[in-house]
Design brief:
Length: 138
């Protein structure tokens, strides 16, 4: 019967761990927040017909940060970034010496990381009115 005390202690410790985990589960770890620096830009619904622009049209970030384009339009859009940026982890794109190009379907997103300071021009194809800028500071 000397086994009952350690088992009971283990059950109490396990219950305490679960209680603490449940309380803290909705608080993301700080390293996740710090590692996810960037800005979201929306391609609004109706952009293909209404000559709308990115929302917002300009992003200001620091080198190493990313921009996430979210397509809320009901058709696919080709996003072109010049000069090239590096697709963020989990994304792929056509990267050439002159730029980065990605076809983003309805409801999809595309992320690009900007490692070098400078001004990046962003436009869409086939909508020439949709123009944006990503300003990257060192």
């Amino acid at each position: 019967m000397h086994v009952a005390a350690p088992v009971a202690a283990g059950l109490v410790a396990g219950a305490a761990f679960i209680a603490v985990f449940a309380i803290r589960a909705d608080e993301p770890p700080i390293y996740r927040i710090a590692s996810m620096k960037g800005q979201a830009i929306t391609i609004p619904e109706g952009a293909s017909a209404a000559e709308a622009n990115f929302e917002p049209a300009t992003a200001s970030i620091e080198a190493g940060d990313f921009v996430l384009w979210e397509n809320k339009e009901v058709v696919a859009v080709n996003i072109v970034i010049e000069p090239a940026c590096e697709p963020s982890q989990g994304y792929s794109a056509n990267v050439t010496s002159s730029g980065t190009e990605k076809l983003v379907g309805p409801g999809e997103s595309f992320g690009c990381t900007f490692d070098k300071a400078g001004e990046y021009r962003v436009h869409t194809e086939p909508w020439p009115w949709m123009l944006g800028t990503v300003s990257v500071s060192p």
